[in-house]
Each structure stands twice: as structure tokens, then as C-alpha cells.
Amino acid sequence: MAIQLQQVSYIYADRSLWKQTALHDIDLAVPQGSMVGIAGATGSGKSTLLQLFNGILKPTGGSVRVLDVTIKAGEKSPKLLPLRRRVGLVFQFPEQQMFEETVEKDLCFGPLNFGLSLEEAKERAHRALLDMGLDPALLARNPFKLSGGQMRKAAIASVLAMDPDILVLDEPTATLDPLSRAELITLLERLCREQGRTVIIVTHRMDELLPYADSWVVLEKGRKAFQGSAQELARDPFILEQCGLTVPQSLRYWRAVADRFGLDNEAPCLTAESLAERIASLCAQPEEDGRGERDGYE
Amino acid sequence: MNETYRPVHAAAGEEQISVSLKEVSFGYDPEHPILQDITLAVPQGQWVSIVGPNGCGKSTLVKLLNALLPKSGGEIVICGHKLEEETISDIRQCIGMVFQNPDNQFIGATVEEDILFGLEGLCLPYAEMESRLHVYAAKLGIDHLMSKHPGELSGGQKQRVAIASILAMEPGIVIFDEASSMLDEGSRNELLGILQEMRTEGKYTILMITHDADEILAADRVVALAGGQIIADVTPEELFRDEVLLAECHLQMPYPWRLARELHRRGIDAGVAADEKELIDRIWPFNYNK
Questions:
Q1: Local confidence band at A112 (pLDDT 50, 70, 90 cut-offs)
Q2: Residues B53, B178: one domain?
């Protein structure tokens, strides 16, 4: 497991009059090399949860195990610096954190801080930029002169340059145009599938991540309301409504088709292309046993 | 959607034009214009979506209308006022803007104070402020939140408060600059409902910068920008039927449209279904008549 949470709770301003519980009793396991989506209504605790993943916040109850480091509530925590290198956290609007005069300097900042030589850092910067699908020619450019989508990718590359095992992103596609959003999700999926990194994405656009995520975590008011595979979620997507979320169209259409044709035991088709393909194949062959007798109509 | 589309009449002079731009351009440096040669007329009461890829100049364009940014050339007329140094304050009273992140436009310590802030700025009599406060809070369903701090609200509630604050100032033109991009799907649908009510009232000319397929589809008209120029001025249906234009604008079709296209490519002409139940009704005969 890349990340394992046991009965974790988190209370802001604990031991004060204004204490506020953000997370209650969360049990969670994220397998290494998987792609996980986290969803939940505003104020459900998503951002608090993310900050537990690399020790920015320490649990006020339970234990958090990330890679080989365990942080237990009430105990002195181990050295967190190596963990912070291995877990890359990308906050909302990461481009707002760029500050250097060239993309290369910005990308080298992290690796240099973790003690790499300038040469190694540059090598990392180059690779990270390629991984985010950007042209290495951008290295010499001023980051503030890039387009919105390029800037977002460059900012994510600056976290990637630290070569993290786990990449955690908070709303990485927010405010990008639909084409750039789709591109970014594909790039993140490649990091997971080709390089074996664990990729965790918080999103309020479930529809765009649904075809790619291995599993989903849904939070409601600081509690875990669901954890399971996309297939399990597709079987009962209406749990999302109980959590104050809207069921994405791709799930609703799949649900309707799966109900009508009895497809619950197969992997869900969560893109327009795959669903159309499945419908076409249903229309091309006679319906299977039992459900729809042919009643001599041909 | 077609029945609600009100095209610009040939005899546009008779109709009231809220926003008129003639050969408007903008650039920080003349060598690299950000917008050039923008000519556009929006009649009173129309709902226009402004679309285009990130960085194409959409936000810049709407900021020229009330001189948040100074135009470099051309002529802008807003509700009959030609944009000049002396008319800027009149024009600003005609235009309300709602931005991406409502947090950036909160000023008051409570929702009530926040709505009143704009009204104080208009130097309205006390009784008028009181009455507008209640009318617009009720209209947007936030009357129960009046004493809350904006920080205690959910994203959707915050956006409602921001809209109430703007509408209370009774502008004729309301501009939404990606106002839903930070909202979850439920709150996005709420926002769409508010806009539809505004259209029904007929008092507002709505300009909405958006990438969201459902929002675009709800508008009367779509103006597409790319490379600093208007590349199309069409109905939402025309936009979503034109795959080349969609790609140029970095847009995607709404999911039911995409599904219809993919089914069509596979020889199933079921058309665009309004929802998943209709889809099942439409594809069932294809399965049954084999």
C-alpha cells in the first residue's frame, strides 16, 4: 500500500473553544501505482485529507502510513523531509506558486533544495517537462509568458522534478478549457501507468476522471461515504447524490444502458465512444438468453 | 433552444442595442495585439456565451466594456453611452460583473453588509437600500444567510451572494466571467437556473464567458474568439454541429451529443437524447428490430 489511514480524524484548533472536526474515523488504503479519484461536496474534508498525505497536517486521532513512514496521533513524528520529496503535493492553481524568471530555474528549485547538484536538477527539469508533454524549448522561457494550460503543466512539472513516488493533485484541471483538461488527465494517467507512480486526484469534475481512475473515495461531511472501484461506483452511483454530489452524465447513461440490457457484471463503459461501441454490439447480436425472447418477430 | 434564440434583426436600429463594439482593439504593445478588429452588437435582453481557448482574450474583451482595461482603438457604446473618460462612471453603473472566484469579490463581514456595500456606493436612500436588500436576497434564496460570514458559506452559496450583490445594483448588463468554473456540478446547475430566471425576466443582457457545454447550450447566441479575433457568431446548436469550430475553441460537445455522434458513426441514428431514459427508448428499436 502506498498510503494507509487507520481511524484517522483531524480536528482544527484542537483543545480550543473553536475546535472544528474536519475528518472523522477515516480508514483508507491506496495501492501503489494506482490512480485514485477523491470526490466530495465543498467542505467535506478533501483538502484536509490531502494534507495528511505528506505530513503537512498530522492526524489528531489514528495513524497515517505513507510509504514506509508512519505518523501516529499524539506521538512525536519521524523525520518528514524524505517523505515530502517522495509525496508531491500539487495545490489548486499551482501556477500561482511559480516565481522564477525561467521555467528551468523554477523546475530546478525543488530538486536543488533536496540536495541534488545543479546538473542533476537540470536533467530532472528536462525530464519532468517532457513528462508533462511540454517542449523542452520552454525551459528558457519566462513562466509568466506561457499560456494558461502550459503554465499549469509547467507548475505540475516543477513538483514532478522531485521525482515523487506519489503525486497528489487538488483540482488540477479547474478553469482550464476542455481540451487542455482532457490532455492533462491523459498525461497524469501516463505517469501512473507507464512510470508506476501513485496518482491521487481531487476533483469536482468526476466525469473527466471516471474513464481513467482505478478507484474512488467519496467524502461526506468529514466521513468516508464510499471507497471502491469505478465498477462498484458504476453499480450504485446514486450514493453520490446522498453525498450532495450530482451523478455525472456518463455514469447515468451507463446505468440506464446496463439496467436495460443487464450488463452489471462487465466493466462499465464511461466514455461516449466505448458506450456507443457497446450499444452497437448489443444491437448487432440477438439478445442473450432469458431476458428478451425473440417472440418470432423477425 | 431554437425558439428562444432571438437573432439580431437586419433593422437593428429599432431594437435597443446594449453593447456595441466597432473595430475595437487592445494590446499592451502595438506589435502584439491581444484583441483586434472586434465588431459586435448585442441587443437588450440577449444571452450571449463568449467562448474560446485559454488565453484567447475573452476576459480582456469584457474588461474593455467598462474600461477596467483601456481600449487601444475603436468605439464602444454601452446602453447608449459612448465610452469616453466622462462616461466611464455612467457605464460602470450599467454593467455588473461576477468573477470566477466569489472569494475575490467579498468585502463585507456578513452577507448583508456585502450586498449593502454596492448600494452605499450608489448613494441610495436608506429605505431603497433596505428594500433592494430584501428583494434580491429573497430572489436568490439567501435570506437565511444574511448574518453569516462569507467564509462560512459553500461555493454555490458564495456565488449566489456575489450575484445578489451585483443584481441589487440593478445593472442592465451582467457579465459572468467563468463564474461556474470553481463550482461542483450541483452548484453549476443552480447557477444555470438563476440565469434562466434572469432571461425570463427580460431585464438583463447577459454576457457569459464559459467553457461549459451546458451553459453554452442554454444561451441565445455564441461568440467564439481565437487569436484575438471573432471567428464565429452562431447559435449554440450551430457551434456544436461544427467539429472544426469546436476544436478551434478547445471545446467539447455535451455528453449526449457526443454519444449521438458516436452512435451515428456506428450506424445507429438515434439522434440526441434529452436524458438517459430517452436514450433507452431511442436505441431499443434498433435492438428489437434486428
A1: very high
A2: yes
Name chain A contacts of B263, Cβ cutoff 8 Å. 276, 279-280
Helix, strand, coil distribution of chain A in percent, nearest 5: 40, 20, 40
Give DSSP secondary structure letters for B121-180. Answer: HTT--HHHHHHHHHHHHHHTT-GGGTTS-GGGS-HHHHHHHHHHHHHHT--SEEEEESTT
Split into its structural domains, chain B has a count of: 2
Residue B14: what pLDDT? 54
Find chain B residues with C-beta within 8 A of A149's C-beta. Answer: 54
Statement to judge: residues B211 and B259 lie in one domain: no
Same domain, yes or no: B174 and B43: yes
B2, part of any domain: no
Strand pairing report for A166-170 and A215-220: unpaired
* Cβ of residue B28 closer than 8 Å to a chain A Cβ: no
Q: Give me the residue label for grid cell 491581444.
A: B34
> How many helices (H) and strands (E) in chain B?
11, 10
pLDDT attached to residue B92: 93
Q: Is residue B258 part of a domain?
A: yes
Q: Are residues B209 and B190 in the same domain?
A: yes
Mean pLDDT, rounded, of chain A:
90
CA distance B127 to chain A (A): 36
pLDDT in tens, A225-239: 999 999 999 999 999
pLDDT of residue B289: 54
Q: Quick check: is B219 in a domain?
A: yes
Cβ of A246 within 8 Å of Cβ of B286? The answer is no
Domain limits at B159? 17-253
Q: Would you say A271 and A291 are in contact if contact means Cβ atoms under 8 Å apart?
A: no
ipTM score assigned to the predicted complex: 0.82
Query: Are B176 and B108 part of one and the same domain?
Result: yes
Residues B187 and B270 in one domain: no
Query: Tell me, what amino acid is at B285?
Result: P
Tens of pLDDT, residues B72-126: 999 999 999 999 999 999 999 999 999 888 887 888 889 999 999 999 989 999 9
The pTM of the full predicted model, rounded to 2 decimals, is: 0.84
Q: Mark whether B187 and B79 lie in a shared domain.
A: yes
B31-B35-B40-B46 Cα dihedral, nearest 10 degrees: -170
A16 lies within 8 A of chain B by CB: no
